[in-house]
């Protein structure tokens, strides 16, 4: 009789992987290269922003008190004593019934407490002097963008572990972060195993297939935020695989392999883990696809033995490798984001194991709807192309009907979840 593997629950499997201590490191990158990276420290405001009171409109800076008597019948006149644009500071002292013509972004003269928009004034010259008048009463503070109204020095602006988006890049620049403290990308090694594997540029041959997992997993690693160190393909030969894997481990934080992990005669990963002396955390999980996913702990590294079947490989990566990578990127929510959705079609297949159906989620009338993105078999590649989510169908039921509320894991969402299990 062949080997029997006892499946553990998904919850337990994820916990075992996440319990392994894997620490992130900080590195500094130029703000230009910070997009898509993860902050390794809370970002603090290095000054008030704006750091001076400024005009939010093109107009005239005056003392609001001087407009008290203004009305439609009795405009109040101001002598215009200076004219400044953004970047300039007036050195004039503004007295009663005097004004500075000021453009958006320019610093408010110290004595002024409001800006009257150009559209609400009349301007003219008399005896070689510039004047303007207003027919309205203006309040102190009207049309002033005050120092610190955007952020106060010392405020926490963005928290550690946040993925840097264009808005955060604007914040970084505003506060002078030319170099940004980000999490170093975890180095994740990758081998695809299988004597049947052809390179992408090779013509098809009898019994052989093109290696698609390497490209898929590389993309998943990059989407997660890792640095991919691709070591190539390996034939199903024990010694070749053992030596290559042993050597590669030293160069990475974790190592992903695809294929050779089940109970077949040429599935050598289990024996390789044994010979290495790695501690196997589990070799069977109560899920479909990806039930054969095997994870081992070796020194301070994690070895992810993902299935060779493309869909199983994909799901195994997202459930187990993704959160470890995100943890090393300081994310407080390292798992895939989980949401509730309405199932669009019947899914009558019964299964003892929880199923992760490659799905397309979309929003209709404000509701999240999910529908399978293709055939639900673990050797299928096509369903992956259209998948933006995995629909979770817990096992032990007689199947699901259209209209049922289910949970989905969103693949393209960077926010993540804390602990979705
Ligand atoms: N007797 C049993 N047989 C199998 C079991 C089982 O429990 N008992 N589990 C099945 C399940 S479930 C899966 S999933 C697969 C897992 O197999 P392996 O992880 O050992 O992967 P391989 O056998 O190497 O390959 C499986 C399949 O995937 C193709 N493959 C492999 N690498 C790639 C690649 N880089 N790109 C594209 N496709 C790849 C390979 O040609 C095979 O068709 O085991 C079942 N069997
Ligand atoms: O690991 Mo397999 O993918 O469960 O079908
Ligand atoms: Mg196999």
From TrEMBL:
Protein's UniProt keywords contain Magnesium: yes
Cellular-component GO terms for this entry: cytosol
GO MF annotation list: metal ion binding; molybdopterin molybdotransferase activity
Pathway(s) this gene product operates in, as recorded in its UniProt entry: Cofactor biosynthesis; molybdopterin biosynthesis
Database matches in InterPro entries: MoaB/Mog-like_dom_sf, MoaB/Mog_dom, MoeA-like, MoeA_C_domain_IV, MoeA_C_domain_IV_sf, MoeA_linker/N, MoeA_linker/N_sf
Pfam families registered for this protein in UniProt: MoCF_biosynth (PF00994), MoeA_C (PF03454), MoeA_N (PF03453)
SUPFAM superfamilies: MoeA C-terminal domain-like (SSF63867), MoeA N-terminal region -like (SSF63882), Molybdenum cofactor biosynthesis proteins (SSF53218)
Enzyme class, broadest EC rank: transferase
Domain MoaB/Mog per the UniProt entry, residue ranges: 189-327
Domain of life per record: Bacteria
The keyword Phosphoprotein is assigned to this record: no
Record field: catalytic activity: adenylyl-molybdopterin + molybdate = Mo-molybdopterin + AMP + H(+)
Protein role: Catalyzes the insertion of molybdate into adenylated molybdopterin with the concomitant release of AMP.
Name used for this protein in its record: Molybdopterin molybdenumtransferase
């Amino acid at each position: 009789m062949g080997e029997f593997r006892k499946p553990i629950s998904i919850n337990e499997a994820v916990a075992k992987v996440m319990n392994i201590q894997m620490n992130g490191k900080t590195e500094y990158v130029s703000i230009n290269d910070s997009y898509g990276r993860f902050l390794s420290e809370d970002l603090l405001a290095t000054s008030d922003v704006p750091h001076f009171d400024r005009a939010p409109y093109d107009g005239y800076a005056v003392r609001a008190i001087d407009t008290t008597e203004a009305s439609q019948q009795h405009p109040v006149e101001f002598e215009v004593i200076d004219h400044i644009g953004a970047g300039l500071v007036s050195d004039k002292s503004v007295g009663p019934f005097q004004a500075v013509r000021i453009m958006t972004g320019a610093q408010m003269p110290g004595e002024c407490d409001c800006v009257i928009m150009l559209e609400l004034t009349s301007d003219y010259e008399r005896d070689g002097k510039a004047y303007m008048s207003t027919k309205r009463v203006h309040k102190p503070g009207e049309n002033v963008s005050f120092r610190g109204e955007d952020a106060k020095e010392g405020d926490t602006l963005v928290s550690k572990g946040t993925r840097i988006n264009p808005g955060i890049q604007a914040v970084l620049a505003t506060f002078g972060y030319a170099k940004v403290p980000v999490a170093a990308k975890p180095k994740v090694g990758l081998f695809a195993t299988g004597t049947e594997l052809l390179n992408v540029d090779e013509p098809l041959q009898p019994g052989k297939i093109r290696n698609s997992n390497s490209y898929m997993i590389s993309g998943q690693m990059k989407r997660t935020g890792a640095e991919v160190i691709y070591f190539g393909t390996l034939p199903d030969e024990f010694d070749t695989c053992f030596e290559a894997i042993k050597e590669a481990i030293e160069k990475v934080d974790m190592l992903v392999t695809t294929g050779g992990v089940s109970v077949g005669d040429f599935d050598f990963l289990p024996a390789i883990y044994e010979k290495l002396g790695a501690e196997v955390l589990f070799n069977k999980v109560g899920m479909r696809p990806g039930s054969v996913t095997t994870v081992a702990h070796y020194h301070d590294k994690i070895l992810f033995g993902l299935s060779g079947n493309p869909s199983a490989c994909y799901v195994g990566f997202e459930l187990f490798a993704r959160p470890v990578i995100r943890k090393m990127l300081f994310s407080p929510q390292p798992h895939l984001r989980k949401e509730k959705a309405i199932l669009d079609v019947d899914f009558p297949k019964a299964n003892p194991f929880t199923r992760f159906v490659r799905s397309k989620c979309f929003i209709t009338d404000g509701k999240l709807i999910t529908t399978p993105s293709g055939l639900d078999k673990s050797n299928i590649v096509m369903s992956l192309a259209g998948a933006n989510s995995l629909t979770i169908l817990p096992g032990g039921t007689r199947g699901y009907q259209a209209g049922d509320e289910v949970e989905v894991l969103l693949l393209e969402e960077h926010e993540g979840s804390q602990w979705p299990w």
